[in-house]
Specification:
The chain is α+β, with helices and mostly antiparallel strands. The protein has eight helices and seven strands. 48% of the residues lie in helices and 17% in strands. The strands form two sheets. It has a four-stranded antiparallel sheet with strand order 1-2-3-6. Strand 2 and strand 3 form a beta hairpin. Helix 1 runs parallel beside helix 4 and helix 6 packs antiparallel against helix 7. The longest helix is centred in the middle third of the chain and has 24 residues. 31% of the residues are buried. The model has no long low-confidence stretch (mean pLDDT 94).
Length: 221
């Protein structure tokens, strides 16, 4: 019998071991894989603690992220212009626009880890531990595969382009990723949309800087 926090640590270690065959490595509750297309990560989400009738319940799940190499290079350029040090690829983050939310509810609903009220010391409920441990391989597979698919050629870009109501951040990421295809009409249209969106926020100077970067990059393809 173990307490809820000890059980959580063991389940977290189990998740890390299951991610190793997919090439992910890490410590604590975040695991990273540097792939040809960028860097992918899977993490344990923040723990939410609630109490029912005075008994603690821990709820948590998994999260994922992917950073295409083109975005990391853009972020490196942007940091350089601001006088900031570059970020190693294995520590790269962003654009932060696509995550696990496209997965089905049975893969994203948080797990619940309750205490066993029938035992002294209120250890973690073994039935909950067993349920989570049995579900881990399926979830780990889904999260690892989705994170890595986003790094396949144009995987991230295609999902951004499918957004029917793109945010400013989405428009910015689209032009950065489209630049790797060279000068195209699609890139011109994306640049115009970004320029309009930034101008509305009185960010025309930044818009010109981004457009200049994108044009230079596209010209090298």
């Amino acid at each position: 019998m173990v307490g809820p926090d000890s059980a959580l640590r063991r389940l977290t270690r189990d998740a890390g071991k299951l991610l190793q065959p997919y090439g992910f490595d890490g410590s604590e509750a975040t695991w990273v894989r540097v792939a040809p297309g960028g860097v992918a990560s899977v993490r344990r989400t923040r723990i939410v603690r609630t109490w029912t009738d005075g008994h603690q319940i821990l709820r948590f799940g998994l999260g994922l992220a992917a950073t295409p190499t083109a975005w990391w290079e853009f972020a490196t350029w942007r940091n350089t212009t601001l006088g900031l040090p570059p970020t190693p690829l294995e520590q790269a983050t962003g654009p932060g626009l696509i995550d696990e939310r496209a997965l089905s509810a049975d893969l994203t609903d948080p797990w619940s880890l309750r205490v066993d009220q029938s035992r002294a010391g209120n250890p973690a409920l073994q039935a909950d531990i067993d349920t989570i441990r049995a579900d881990l391989p399926r979830r780990v597979h889904a999260y690892a595969r989705r994170a890595l698919r986003l790094l396949e050629p144009d995987g991230y870009l295609h999902e951004l382009l499918a957004d029917s109501n793109p945010t400013l951040g989405t428009r910015e990421a689209i032009v950065v990723l489209l630049a790797d295809h060279g000068p195209t009409a699609q890139l011109d249209e994306a640049i115009a949309a970004l320029h309009t969106a930034l101008a509305e926020l009185d960010e025309s100077t930044y818009a010109e800087e981004v457009v200049a970067y994108v044009r230079r990059r596209a010209a090298l393809v």
